[in-house]
Amino acid sequence: MVVHIVMFQFKDENKEANLIQAKQMLESLMGRVPTLRSMDVGVNFSPEERAMDLSIITTFEDKEGLESYAVHPEHLKVVDFIKQVVEYSKVVDYEKTL
Predict the structure, then answer these.
(1) How far apart are CA 4 and CA 66, in angstroms?
(2) Of 7, 12, 13, 61, which residue is 20 to 30 A from 23 by alpha carbon distance?
(3) pLDDT tens digits for 53-94?
(4) What is the pTM of this model?
(5) Nearest to 78 by CA among 33, 13, 15
């Protein structure tokens, strides 16, 4: 199993609305991207300076599944939106044994 984690820091302009829209768009990918096995999307509530605004944790059967997700047309629509409203993001990908 492959775990893909992304954390996003959003721009201040329209932050709340953009967070809601990004969360909804990401969650809508379940069932629409065949290789996506699970997804957890969370909006941060921590006031810490180092906190990020939104995170996703997704799982795939293998690296090929993650690669298919990365280029899937439905995922690319979400990426296009997020690129417009995010200052930066961080990612971690790893293999997990069951």
Answers:
(1) 8
(2) 61
(3) 999 999 999 999 999 999 999 999 999 999 999 999 999 999
(4) 0.93
(5) 33
Distance between CA atoms of residues 48 and 31, nearest Å: 34
Q: Where in the chain are the domains? A: 2-92
Tell me how long the chain is: 98
Asked if residues 3 and 55 have their Cβ atoms less than 8 Å apart, the reply is no
Residue 50: pLDDT over 90: yes
- Name the amino acid, one letter, at 27: E
CATH annotation of 2-92: 3.30.70.100
